Each structure stands twice: as C-alpha cells, then as structure tokens.
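Good morning C.,

I know you're traveling, so I'll keep this short. The sequence:
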Amino acid sequence: MAKGKDRFVEVYSQGIMNVAKIIVDTETGVNYLLASHDLRVGTGLTVMMDQDGKPVVTPIK
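The tokens, ready to paste straight into the viewer:
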C-alpha cells in the first residue's frame, strides 16, 4: 500500500437515515456493504458476494 493512501474507500452511498454504502479495501479489492436503518442505533457490515458465493473483488490498479 502506498504511503498516505486510504486503506478503505467509499465507492457508493445511498440514503441519509436508511444508509447503504459500498466500501472497497484498496489492498485486496474486496467489496463490503455497510447498511444501517438509523446510523444512531447501529450498522451492519458484510462482504459482498457474487452469484457463486465468492467475494466481489474490484481490480486494484
């Protein structure tokens, strides 16, 4: 990882109270879904999976 580069980057965001965000690990390319009904109550984070049950991976340049 290049010095000063963020390890995780947000590539998609939807909603204000009912939030869904896609976060990519810049070292592995693995995509995560962060979801919350209300950010004050709690959130959930999970690896995004493709139709074959494998992690969704974004190619890293």
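Safe travels,
E.
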